[in-house]
Design brief:
3-stranded antiparallel sheet, alpha+beta, flat, 19% strand, 3 helices
């Protein structure tokens, strides 16, 4: 979204709709958001959409990353998400 519209709740509104659509499409698949730790606004959007922080860390190099999801993640899936 353009910086001109930041802070008005638009990203959260879109994220809530996206989570609802994903869950309606297939409840067997988790909804996941990967966020850079240097972007706290995106982490708040994920939380506003009902996603919970499931992992925080530095996979190899660069900034720390956060993984949010709508449920606990299987260890293999979490490992794959961390590696992305």
């Amino acid at each position: 979204l353009s910086p001109a519209v930041w802070g008005h709740g638009l990203a959260s509104e879109v994220a809530v709709a996206a989570v609802e659509a994903a869950q309606a499409a297939d409840l067997t698949l988790p909804v996941v958001a990967r966020v850079l730790s240097t972007n706290p606004a995106s982490s708040r959007v994920a939380a506003n959409a009902g996603l919970t922080l499931r992992w925080r860390g530095r996979p190899t190099e660069g900034p720390k990353r956060l993984i949010h999801a709508d449920r606990d993640l299987e260890p293999e899936l979490l490992k794959a998400l961390i590696a992305l």
